[in-house]
Amino acid sequence: MKSIFLRGRDQHRIGGLTLEGLGPVAAALSRGGARKTYDHTDPNEDCVAFALGDGGELVIAADGHHGDLGSEAAVQAILSDFAARFTAATPPTTSADAWRELAFDALLRANHAVLEIAGRNNLRPAPTTLVLAVLRPAEDLLLHASVGDSHLFAIDAAGATELGGRDPAWKFTPFLGYEEARRDLLERYSRVGVRSLEGLRAVALATDGLSELGIGVENPAGTVHASVARIEPGTAADLSALRACRGIIEDAMDAHRRQEAGDNLACSVVWLQR
Question: What does the alpha-carbon distance between residue 166 and residue 17 come to, in Å, rounded to a whole number?
Answer without folding.
Answer: 27
